[in-house]
């Protein structure tokens, strides 16, 4: 994600509302029908016209990148709300996994698409987001001490891979829950 994704330009309230509705609609429609769904379906779900969609997003990759930026911003807000709490790490990890379940169709498409988001910038933001809560969880003895934020990104990628191809939201949630439980068994310190 570029810096402008972190500090979006100021928009009129109605224009910002349209953009927010498009991102929310795209998140839902991509989760239900996959990344190749006609963009008209997203505009209809958002209650806007095609021109409004294309005025905000040049293509589906730009829309997918906006979903990722929105997801990271939501995680940053969650981290701020849980700052200093002992359960902040597991709360963030659970929220990230929920986002992966909902965004399962985006991940493979955005990684290979022509308008791929700046994955290095996204990884840096996620690493900063997880670093403090991870240190506190480690200090409390809830998470093994040798786990690094980049290890956590690998865990998220593993759980994300477990949900790809699951036909329904319920199936993705079951797979993610099981994968996360298996991984967490490897994250806790050994006695």
Q: Order of helices and strands, N to C?
A: HHHHHHHHHH
CATH class of the largest domain: Mainly Alpha
**C-alpha termini separation:** 40 Å
Number of strands: 0
Strand portion, in percent?
under 5%
Please mark out the parts with pLDDT under 50 across 5 or more consecutive residues, or reply none: 1-5
Structural class: mainly alpha
List its salient traits.
mainly alpha, 10 helices, Arc Repressor Mutant, subunit A, 191 residues, disordered N terminus, single chain, Tetracycline Repressor, domain 2, 2 domains
Question: How would you sum up this structure, described in words?
Answer:
- With 191 residues, the protein is mainly alpha-helical.
- It folds into 2 domains: 8-57, Arc Repressor Mutant, subunit A (Orthogonal Bundle), CATH 1.10.10; 71-191, Tetracycline Repressor, domain 2 (Orthogonal Bundle), CATH 1.10.357.
- The protein has 10 helices and no strands.
- It has helices spanning 3-6, 13-33, 39-46, 50-56, 60-81, 88-102, 106-112, 119-139, 149-163, 169-187.
- Helix 6 runs parallel beside helix 9 (149-163), helix 6 runs antiparallel to helix 10 (169-187) and helix 8 (119-139) packs across helix 9.
- It starts with a helix and ends with a helix.
Spell out the blueprint of helices and strands:
Layout (H helix, E strand, L loop, with lengths): L2 H4 L6 H21 L5 H8 L3 H7 L3 H22 L6 H15 L3 H7 L6 H21 L9 H15 L5 H19 L4
Helix pairs in contact: 2-3, 2-5, 5-6, 5-8, 6-8, 6-9, 6-10, 8-9, 9-10
Organism: Nannocystis pusilla
InterPro entries: Homeodomain-like_sf, HTH-type_TetR-like_transc_reg, HTH_TetR, Tet_transcr_reg_TetR-rel_C_sf, TetR_SbtR-like_C
Protein name: TetR/AcrR family transcriptional regulator
